[in-house]
Amino acid sequence: MSQPTVLFERAGRVARLTLNRPEVLNAINDELPDQLRAAVERANTDPEVHVIVLAGAGKAFCAGYDLKRYAETPRPVPGSQDMPWDPMIDYQLMSRNTACFMSLWRSLKPTVAKVHGHAVAGGSDIALCCDLVIMAEDAKIGYPPARVWGCPTTAMWVYRVGAERAKRMLLTGDLIDGREAKAMGLVTEAVPAAELDARVEALVQRMASVPKNQLMMQKLMVNQAYENMGLASTQLIATLFDGVARHTPEGVAFKARSEQVGFAQAVRERDSGTS
Q1: Residue 10 φ/ψ, nearest 5 degrees
Q2: The pTM is what?
Q3: Residues 6+ apart with CB under 8 A from 28
Q4: pLDDT of residue 275
Q5: In angstroms, how far is the first alpha carbon of the chain from the final one?
Q6: Which end of the chain is flanked by fewer CB atoms within 10 Å, N or C?
Q7: Per-residue pLDDT tens digits for 170-186
Q8: Any long-range contacts for 166-169 (C-beta under 8 Å, 24+ apart)?
């Protein structure tokens, strides 16, 4: 039997979820989104759990989608169709994954992301769906596919930092470290890497001492404000655009370049800022 891509453990009032593909920096494969949602649901139905913590095994939180095989394999592959393409096929695929990631946001119990290493591309989507994000100061977060071949389907950037700062990140595809993410208001706290575990533990234990019904009421109230601002409709547009981005002339050219020189080299060229 294959190793689970998301581990579940409960200690007292805290459920600990761990992305478990450390050999590829916890890159997102076909199974991880569904297993993540199942783990969140398990924590929500456990009467002992007050708070959920999400972390990544190994050297990183999550390096985004495991796209190497899709980018280097000739069409058609998931996320990269033959032309002419059907945008609803992409929407069906990515809206399911977005719903899985958003299970963290819609969880009735608060969720805390503990970010070390990298939380990039789809990995940033996962982290930013959590209620609170604590980063190591030297960790990196960002959405490089905003340059070519992607759009963040959860659209949480704009809801966390507002229009101008979201544009600053998504019009460049830059990565920033935990210090800048904290200064921007993207994450709750940034601490030295050696202090990350202890700071997250102190925070979640403080939250876990609050009655579950109080935690639920406060979270539902805040989340409803975002629903009233059109979160669901923004995510629909973002998810459609994510599929469009892989089938524009530039997206098709990026795919062809990945097949020619490999995904890693194509990404280096895309993100170099020289084209």
Answers
A1: -115, 135
A2: 0.96
A3: 62, 64, 65, 66, 97, 122, 123, 126
A4: 64
A5: 45
A6: N
A7: 999 999 999 999 999 99
A8: 169/142, 169/143
